[in-house]
Write a structure and sequence with these properties.
The chain contains 35 helices and nine strands. The protein is mainly alpha-helical. The termini are far apart.
């Protein structure tokens, strides 16, 4: 190991720009500056970098690693080369030596001798011009002490640090895109803790990066040995955390063990429910404060707490005994049920944005409860309850695959054990049904329609029955079954109206509008339904549903050629979708905007909207939005004078639609079919048929990438002197005339 003052400096210093800037500014003002953070976060390495940047090589290094109680003052004196003399201790001599001489004194690893370190730092700062820089897992509590928190590395810094660690053993290591993706997963799973990352890289290339991802997922680095270390507390991550826990009180240690059950954020009420449900909340709050002070927990500005994954893995042995583990598991499951019910109520009352954000923060814990519930038939009903809540997250952009996996695992477990009654099983199938709709798996949904309707009817659950009718109406719509689409949607509308469920009414109106637009080719009637649903959603603040209705209104205005209204509703929809952080909605709205702009002649505006839509599709898994976007790209490419490229794109999308069993009728698809026919007509008949047959069955990611490339190439073919068409008053009057007609 290459070391300076016993600190490993094999790896060039990486990142920490914010802490460097903050600490250097504090050091310039003098006094005491303490770097506080968990074990393994790189405090000593950062302090060494600060010392060199602030004082060059002219600083005194005071290592307290092996120093016990009563020896801190002597350690400071030894570092400064001071000796005891008649009537003066060695420490007093050291302080006298510093008077009138600006110098930096670095005191490293002070957490186990806080009182003595505080006294020494205060004495030096008060009696001399020296600046004291301290590293500790716990703040000193000294007069005038300035704190710089050193936690996990941000993702970009952690990635760079991983590569730098590998390069100390493999010169010229240059990961490709796939390897970098694995590195991203590793450092994310290790929560960016430098020591854990360093330990993981020590096993490369003996273990591949893919194997290290699995290692990080299981947090095995908590027990990996570093190949070289002179620090008895940093041979393993386990020893690093054990050192911190040894400084805790007994109750704080017990609480820490219990809190390792949480995988994400939690609050003081969560901690109380898990560790001490019969204790006053103030006692639990004090224990959490102690854990924060020892850098074993992090406290966010909103008052919530979190534990770094490597710390959680290393502290888990504190939860000892099978009986205690069972008790904590039951308390954890009960608490997460209460949390889920509260979040579901928040979403039901219309506060969907905050509800989905809260689900994301607690998602790892909800997932843990579902895993726990699947392992035992008597716990399965809890997994069903949780799945009902998580549909809101699975439906939000890029989580559909995970939603399909979980709902299938739960339904398979339910059918295998037979533990659920028909009503509970119907609720589980409803959760799966909602995910199926978004993943365009309509046949699976329709296959269980009779069972769902029968179970909810027998249980007299009018709300769930109305929701099932709404979902079945959507499924029938997208399989082209006009009769059932109308029947289910009308029944949903009547039922939700009767029980006063306003969200259900708005959803049913949305479905009725889509039936009129997609199946019956009646845009004026569709507009009427959509506007009623929009008014209701706006009044009740159903933001997610309002975005859907605004998008549907935009598609209707496009058919009616009312382009000014289209731009207006798209602008509002994009703002709402951004607030919901829903990339899927944003991509769909941008694609709809592009179709309207192409139709109105604004090709440059259409290109910009298409570029945004394709970029946003990178994070979503909804094949319908991808198909509609690429079909619009094909239209753009055709107008750019590249019929061959347009024809090949249309054929690729056709195969994409066949693969995902997507809607093959309606205004959008009709426009795509027309684009394909126009492309073939512009080519010779033989070339046109060849082009239409050349679309490969590619993955969604490949289809998106091809569309981006084709769009970029086609953009350069437009006349550089052309300008976007602007909507004159005459155009507006024409649009209004078409709408009224």
């Amino acid at each position: 190991m290459i070391a300076e003052h016993g600190i490993d400096v094999r790896v060039p210093f990486v990142g920490r720009a914010g802490q460097l800037e903050q600490a250097l500014a504090l050091l310039r003002t003098g006094g005491i500056v303490t770097l506080v953070g968990p074990g393994g976060s790189g405090k000593s390495r950062l302090a060494l970098e600060l010392a060199h940047r602030s004082a060059g090589d002219d600083f005194a290094f005071v290592p307290l690693l092996e120093i016990g109680t009563g020896a801190v003052a002597d350690a400071v004196a030894a570092a400064l080369g001071a000796r005891e003399s008649a009537g003066e201790t060695a420490f007093d001599a050291a302080v006298a030596q510093l008077r009138g001489r600006p110098r930096l004194v670095l005191i490293d690893n002070a957490e186990h001798v806080l009182g003595e370190a505080r006294s020494a730092a205060e004495a030096i700062a008060a009696a001399s011009e020296a600046v004291v820089l301290v590293t500790s897992r716990h703040r000193l509590g000294a007069r005038g002490e300035a704190i710089v928190e050193v936690g996990a590395m941000p993702l970009p810094d952690a990635q760079t640090f991983f590569v730098s660690c590998v390069r100390t053993r493999i010169a010229g290591f240059a990961p490709d895109a796939r390897e970098r993706a694995s590195i991203d997963k590793i450092v994310t799973l290790l929560d960016g803790l430098p020591f854990a990352i360093d330990l993981a890289t020590a096993h490369y290339p003996a273990k591949s990066l893919g194997q290290l991802v699995e290692t990080a997922r299981r947090i095995v680095p908590a027990r990996l040995n570093a190949k070289t270390s002179s620090d008895s507390r940093h041979c393993t991550l386990q020893q690093t955390i054990d050192w911190s826990t040894s400084l805790l009180g007994e109750r704080a240690r017990d609480a820490l063990g219990c809190l390792t059950t949480f995988n994400g954020r939690f609050d003081v009420q969560d901690a109380r429910a898990l560790y001490a449900p019969d204790e006053p909340v103030e006692i639990v709050a004090d224990l959490l404060t102690e854990l924060v002070d020892h850098s074993l927990l992090m406290r966010a500005s909103d008052g919530s707490y979190a534990m770094l994954a490597p710390i959680r893995a290393a502290a888990r042995p504190l939860l000892s005994g099978t009986a205690q583990r069972r008790t904590i598991s039951k308390r954890f499951a009960a608490r997460m049920r209460d949390v889920a019910n509260a979040m579901r109520a928040r979403i039901e009352t219309g506060n969907s944005a905050n509800g989905i954000s809260a689900i994301a923060q607690r998602y790892a814990d909800f997932r843990a409860v579902m895993e726990w519930s699947i392992k035992s038939s008597d716990r399965l009903p809890l997994g069903v309850e949780i799945s009902w809540l998580l549909v809101a997250r699975w439906a939000d952009g890029g989580h559909l695959t995970e939603g399909m996996t979980w709902t299938k695992r739960l339904t398979d477990a339910a059918q295998k054990t037979g533990v659920l009654d028909s009503y509970a099983l119907a609720k589980l199938w409803y959760a799966r049904m909602r995910v199926c709709i978004l993943a365009s798996d309509y046949p699976t949904l329709i296959e269980h329609s009779s069972f769902l309707v029968g179970a909810f009817t027998q249980a007299n659950d009018q709300l769930s029955l109305g929701r099932a009718y709404n979902a079945l109406g959507v499924a029938s719509l997208y399989t082209g079954d006009l009769d059932n689409a109308l029947r289910y949607s009308e029944m949903a509308l009547r039922l939700h109206t009767a029980i006063g469920h306003r969200r259900g009414v708005a959803s049913a109106l949305c479905n009725m509008g889509s039936i009129e637009l997609e199946l019956r080719d009646c845009p004026a009637q569709a507009l009427e339904y959509y506007l009623k649903g929009e008014e209701l959603s706006r009044a009740e603040r159903f933001d997610g549903l309002l975005v859907t209705l605004l998008g549907n209104l935009a598609e209707t205005y496009c058919v009616l050629q009312h382009y000014l209204k289209l731009e207006e509703v798209i602008a509002e929809g994009l703002a709402l979708a951004a607030g919901l952080d829903n990339a899927a909605f944003q991509s769909w709205l941008n694609a709809t905007l592009a179709r309207g702009r192409l139709a109105s002649g604004d090709r440059q505006g259409a290109r910009r909207a298409l570029e945004r839509a394709l970029d946003l599709l990178e994070t979503t898994q909804q094949p319908e939005y991808l198909a509609a976007t690429v079909e619009t790209v094909a239209r753009y490419v055709l107008l750019a004078g590249q019929p061959g490229e347009a024809a090949r794109l249309i054929r690729a999308v056709q195969r994409h639609r066949e693969r995902f069993r997507l809607l093959t009728f309606g205004p959008t698809v009709d426009g795509a079919r027309q684009t394909g026919e126009q492309a073939r007509d512009r080519l010779s008949r033989e070339d046109g048929e060849a082009a239409l047959g050349a679309g490969d069955r590619v993955s969604s990611a490949d289809l998106r990438a091809v569309a981006k490339t084709v769009l970029r190439n086609a953009s350069s073919r437009y006349d550089s002197h052309g300008s976007p068409v602007t909507h004159s008053s005459q155009l507006q009057e024409q649009d209004l005339g078409r709408t009224s007609g």
